[in-house]
Specification:
Strand order of the largest sheet: 1-2-3
Helix content: 40-55%
Number of strands: 3
Distance between the termini: 80 Å
CATH superfamily of the largest domain: Tyrosine recombinase, N-terminal domain
Number of helices: 6
C-alpha cells in the first residue's frame, strides 16, 4: 500500500489508491504529524501482514527464529509448518480457522502423542505470528495439546486373595 498523509485541521487521514484505481481513505484521528506517521506505518504493515501467505510465513518464521531456537526444534517447526502450508495451498495466515486445523490433524496418520506434539509446536508458531502482527488469533488453541488426565484407582486386596489368584 502506497499511502500518503492528508491533514484536515487537527485531524489526519491516510489516502491511497487501490488496485482497482479507486481512492481509499482511513481516518487516523486527532494527533500530531509524528503520531500520524507512526499510525500510517502501522496501518501499512498490518495491510501487508493480512496478505502474507503460509509459504511466505514459513520462510520468514524460520529465518527469524534461527538464532533463537535449537536446530532440531527449528527443523521440526519448519517441517510441520511446511506440511500444513502444503495442505492449505495458497492461503493467508489470517484465514486459518480452527475447523481447517481440525481437518488437517484428522488427515495425519500419526500416533496421538505425535499429534499433540504437533499441536504444541503449531501453537508456539502462531503465538509468534500474533506477536509479529501476522495473525489475529491462534486457531490451534482449541486443540488438546496434552494427554487427558486419567484417575487411577488402586485396588486394595488381601494376601489371601492374591494367594487364591495364583
Amino acid at each position: 500500500m502506497n499511502a500518503r498523509l492528508e491533514r484536515n485541521g487537527e485531524y489526519w487521514r491516510a489516502v491511497w489508491h487501490g488496485p482497482d484505481g479507486r481512492k481509499h481513505t482511513a481516518g487516523l484521528g486527532k494527533c500530531s504529524k509524528r503520531q500520524a506517521q507512526k499510525k500510517l506505518a502501522e496501518l501499512d504493515t498490518s495491510a501487508t501482514a493480512a496478505r502474507m501467505l503460509l509459504d511466505e510465513w514459513t520462510v520468514l518464521y524460520v529465518s527469524q527464529r534461527a538464532q533463537m531456537l535449537d536446530e532440531s526444534t527449528l527443523s521440526q517447526h519448519a517441517t510441520y509448518l511446511r506440511r500444513f502450508a502444503q495442505y492449505c495451498g495458497p492461503m493467508s495466515v489470517r484465514d486459518v480457522t480452527p475447523m481447517l486445523v481440525a481437518n488437517w490433524l484428522g488427515t495425519l496418520d500419526v500416533a496421538d502423542s505425535t499429534r499433540r506434539k504437533i499441536v504444541r509446536y503449531m501453537r508456539t508458531i502462531w503465538k509468534w505470528a500474533i506477536n509479529q502482527n501476522v495473525a489475529n488469533a491462534n486457531p490451534w488453541s482449541t486443540q488438546p495439546a496434552r494427554h487427558p488426565r486419567v484417575d487411577r484407582e488402586v485396588a486394595y486386596v488381601s494376601v489371601e486373595t492374591v494367594y487364591h489368584l495364583s
